[in-house]
Request: fold
Amino acid sequence: MNHQQDYEDELRARFTKWLDIVIYRAKLKYLRKTETKLETVSFEELPESSQPIYEDDLRNIFSSTDFDFEEERLADAFVKLPIKRQQILTMLFVEEKRPEEIAKELNCSAQHVYDQKYQALKKLRIELAKEGDGR
Amino acid sequence: MKPEEFHRILEEATLGSHEALGRIFEMYAPMINKHSQIGGKLDEDLKQYILIHIALNISKFHI
Reply:
């Protein structure tokens, strides 16, 4: 009796999982289909008023985006960090060096690099949150 | 619903019973509705597409 019960439960769980996958695939297919149905208009067909002709127009459009704003705030917070920490973050995230390589270059331990990274990111988060609240 | 009843309905649905399939749809309505949303809103076309997809594929489920 118990074995039968276990089998029924297992069947239900298996079917639920199967159904979840079938639904997920159906949704993906549907989204792909509707995506390709979206009408596209060539650049030449666009009305003149919709075309950013001058470089200044483009600059005006992009200069007011949130993304740029966030970047600027991040840059401001970054320059407030001690030089050593700035250097470590740059090596980690821009030059994509491993902490061990950085430690060798800076003549310190890898643990020190990890600590500096942790402290720097913490400081950046605090700075960004502080400026975010002020708005 | 008792597990053995679920087993029977599922078996019938996989064999092509429309009534059993309807019961499966009822049972799994929350899951189907959840996946039928686009941008937080129920998309009826997507829901229909999903239901048809299930109906066409349920015979492939091995009990």
